[in-house]
Amino acid sequence: MASALETYVNRNVAIITADGRTIVGVLKGFDQTINLILDESHERVYSSTQGVEQVLLGLYIIRGDNVAVVGEIDDDADSQLDLSKIRAEPLGPVSH
After folding, report:
1. Which of 32, 35, 36, 37 has the most CB atoms around it within 10 Å of its CB?
2. Alpha carbon of 76 to those of 12, 37, 39, 48: distances in Å?
3. Are 94 and 83 in contact (CB under 8 A)?
């Protein structure tokens, strides 16, 4: 996974955590245990009754044991989203 993460450094990524949170930001670095450092980050909080809330986090570290999924964000597609109109049930935690 580390080699794939190298291609994401200094790019916008979305992280799904093991507890079901979605965090978006610029990947600034990582280590061998997949601890991630994000800059300009925010959490996207989903709701079935209202639009997506974005909670500013700024510089943020996610422990590697809490990382479930890492993906690069398509900046053009992401900028086209109207988050205020998106309704979705929040993700639950990862179960093993």
Report:
1. 36
2. 11, 23, 19, 25
3. no
Per-residue burial over 59-70, b = 16 or more CB atoms within 10 Å of its CB, e = otherwise: ebebeeeebeeb
> 23, 59 in Cβ contact below 8 A?
no
Q: What is the pTM of this model?
A: 0.89
pLDDT tens for 9-42 read 999 999 999 999 999 999 999 999 999 999 999 9
The C-alpha atoms of residue 1 and residue 68 are separated, in whole angstroms, by: 12
**Tokens in use for 45?**
């909080």
Q: What is the pLDDT of residues 40-54, one digit of tens each?
A: 999 999 999 999 999
Tell me the Ramachandran region of residue 10: left when phi exceeds 0, alpha when psi lies from -120 to 50, beta otherwise: left
